[in-house]
Amino acid sequence: MTDLHAPSVRAWTTYDLPVPVAQLRSWLVQDPSIPDLFAQQAKRHGNKVAVRVGDESVTYGQLQDRVACLAGWMVERGVGRGDRVLVMGENSVELLVACLATMWAGAVEVVANPTYTARELAHLVTDSGATAALVDGHLKGLLDDELKRAPATVCIDNNKEMAGVWAAEPASPPQMQGGELAALQYTSGTTGHPKGASLTHANVVAYLRSVHIAWSWTDADVLVHSLPLAHGHGRNGVYAALLAGATSVVLPRTDVSHIQSTLTAEHATVFYAVPAIWGRLVNSGDFRPSAFDSLRLYTSGSAALEPSLARQVRSALGDVPLERYGSTETGIVVTNPLNGPRVEGTVGQPMPGAEVRVADKNGESVDSGEVGEIVVRGPSVFNGYWRGHTDTDFIDGWYRTGDLGAIDPEAHNYLRIVGRSREMIISGGLNVYPREIEHAALESFLVREAAVVGIPSSRWGEEVVMAIVPETPEATDVDAVLAHLRQRLAPYKVPKQIRVVSALPRNHVGKVSMKDLTSLWDLR
Ligand code: AMP
Predict the structure, then answer these.
(1) How does DSSP classify residue 113?
(2) What kind and span of H or E run contains 74?
(3) Residue 484 CB–ligand 1 contact under 6 Å
(4) What is d(CA 233, CA 264) in angstroms, rounded to the nearest whole number?
(5) Longest dimension (CA), the chain
(6) DSSP letter string, 370-421
(7) What is the distance in A from the centroid of ligand 1 to the CA of 404?
(8) Cβ(235) to ligand 1 under 6 A?
(9) How far, in Å, CA of 111 to CA of 157, rounded?
C-alpha cells in the first residue's frame, strides 16, 4: 500500500518550509477572507504597482479604492452577502476590480468565459442564480433580459457608466468567515455541462498560501501571466501575487514576441504558462532564451506538458518548466519542487497542506507504480458542487479527481498523470490510455501535436482514433506515423483512424476539447 501523504510530508520538510509541518494546516487556514488579506497588502504597498494589463496599471492604493467603490455601488443596489454576481470580460484591470469588488461586497464571484455563447451563458446564470452582472459592454447582449435589468448591472469597460460607480460611497471590507463562499467556479467543461465548484474563502486562501510557501513568493516578485483571468487558475495567479504584495502583469495577448518583450521590460521573476504557450514559444522561429533571464520560476500546468517539449525548454532555458497539477475543485495540489529535482513527465509531490493518494475504486491506496484514480483531501479542496452532485465525487472525504495516475518509485515518488478515467478507452475489452499513444506519436519527427479519443465501434466496443497536427504541412504522411506507432505500441493501442488537422480544437486555457475532437469523426 502506498500513501503518498506520508512520504510527501517528509519530502516537503526538506524544502525549507517556513513553518513546521504540524502547524502547516492551521497556518494555511488562519486568515479568513481574500478582501482582508488584500487590504493588508494595500496598506503596506499603497504606491506600488499591483497589476498591469496592457497599457493600464494600478497601484495597490488605486486598486483598493476602485474595489471599495464598486463594492459600495453594488451594496447600494441591494447586492448582499452570499449573492452571486456574474463577472465577464476580456483580461483587463476592470475585470479584476469586478472580481475583487464582488468579494468585498460579501458576494460570490461567478466568472464566465467571455467566449461563451448565449446558450452556455444562460446555463451559468440559471444554475448560479446570479442577480447582478459586471460585464464588458459587447457581452451584455448575451445576458437574459432579467439580468440586463438588474439594478447592479454595469458595463465595466464603459467609462461613462463607470464614472458613476467611482463616485459611489466606498464600502469597508466585510468581516467574512472562512466558510463563506468566495466563488462559484464553473469547470471548463471539456466533456459536459459546466458545473459550479463552490469555493469558500478558506479554500482559496489555503490554495494561495500553499503556493506562497511552495514557490517562495515574496513582495519582490513580478509575475508575467499568460492565463486568462476568466479561468480560476488565471485569477488565482493574480490573487497569489496580490496577497504576497507582488506585481502582476497580465498579458492581453499571448503571441511569442509580446510575451518575450514583456518578460524583459518588466524584469519578470515568475512566468505562469500552459503547455500550449510553451509549444508556441519553443516552436516559433522567434524564441529568445535571453528574454527569460530574469525569471526565478516558470511554470506549466492545466494540461500535460509533453516530456519532449519539456526537454526542449530545458535545453534552451536550463531547466524544465516547473510542472504543477490541480483542478478547479482542488486548487493546485501537486507540484515539482522549486529547488529539488524536477522530473519531466511527472507533476511532483503534494503542495503544503494537501494530501494526495492514488486509489482503487473502493478508495484504498494502490501499490507504488500502479495506476489508480488520484484522490485529494485538504484545506483548498472544495466541499461540492453548487446544487448538489456531491456524493459520487467524494469517497470517505477524499475528492475523486477523475484523473488516473501512478506514483513513480523511480522518480522520487513523484506523481505521474496517466490520463482521465473518463477518457480511458476500452477497446476489445482492453484499457487504452490516450496519453500513452499521444506520447508515442510525438516521438515521431512528423508529428507536432496529437490527441487520441475513443469512438463507438460495433466491432471493438470503442475504437482508438487520433488527430494529428503534422510538424510541417508537407510532412503529412499518415502511413509513416502508423508505422512509427506499430513499432512502439501493442496492436490494440494503434489508432484505427488518423485525421490530419491544422490545429487541435482547444478551449481558452489550451486544453483539447474532447467534444470537438470527437466531432471530427462522423458518428452515427
Ligand atoms: P481545470 O479544472 O480546468 O483546472 O482542469 C483540471 C484538470 O486538468 C485536471 O483534473 C487534469 O485532468 C488536468 N490537468 C491539470 N494539470 C495537469 C498536468 N500538469 N498534467 C496533466 N493534466 C493536468
Answers:
(1) P
(2) helix 60-76
(3) no
(4) 24
(5) 70
(6) --EEEEEESTTS---BTTB--GGGEETTEEEEEEEEEEETTTTTEEEEEEEG
(7) 11
(8) no
(9) 16
> Is the beta carbon of 420 within 6 A of some atom in ligand 1?
yes
Instruction: Tell me if 417 CB under 6 Å of ligand 1.
Output: yes
Task: Take residue 236 and report the three cell numbers written for it.
Answer: 488565482
- Gap from CA of 139 to ligand 1 centroid (Å): 28
Mutation pick for ligand 1 pocket among 186, 195, 302, 511 (CB with most ligand atoms within 8 Å): 302
Centroid of ligand 1 to alpha carbon of 304 (angstroms):
7
The x, y and z cell numbers of residue 252, run together, are 492581453
Q: Is the CB of 353 under 6 A from ligand 1?
A: no
The verdict on the CB of residue 325 being under 6 Å from ligand 1 is yes
> Rounded to the nearest whole angstrom, what is the distance from the C-alpha of residue 9 to the centroid of ligand 1?
23
Q: Is 478 in the pocket of ligand 1 (CB under 6 A)?
A: no
Measured distance CA(363)–CA(383) in Å, rounded: 18
pTM: 0.86
Phi then psi for 249, rounded to 5 degrees? -120, 110
Which single residue is written with the C-alpha cell 494502490? 366
HSE value, Cβ hemisphere, 13 Å, CA-based, for 508: 19
Of 523, 486, 516, which is closest to residue 501 (Cα–Cα)?
516
- Listing DSSP states for 171-235 in one string gives PPPP---TTSEEEEEE---SSSS--EEEEEHHHHHHHHHHHHHHTT--TT-EEEE-S-TTSHHHH
Q: Which three cell numbers stand for residue 511?
A: 486544453
What's the rounded Cα separation, in Å, for the pair 114 and 76?
A: 27
Query: From first to last of its 524 residues, what are the pLDDT tens digits of the chain?
Result: 333 333 343 344 344 455 555 566 666 666 679 999 999 999 999 999 999 999 999 999 999 999 999 999 999 999 999 999 999 999 999 999 999 999 999 999 999 988 888 888 898 999 999 999 999 999 999 999 989 999 999 999 999 999 999 999 999 988 888 899 999 998 755 455 678 999 999 999 999 988 998 999 999 999 999 888 988 889 999 999 999 999 999 998 889 999 999 999 999 999 999 888 999 899 899 999 999 999 999 999 988 898 989 999 999 999 999 999 999 999 999 999 998 899 999 999 988 888 899 999 899 999 999 999 999 998 899 989 998 766 678 998 999 999 999 999 999 889 999 888 878 888 877 788 888 899 889 988 899 999 999 998 877 878 999 999 998 877 788 999 999 999 888 888 899 999 999 999 988 777 888 888 888 887 64
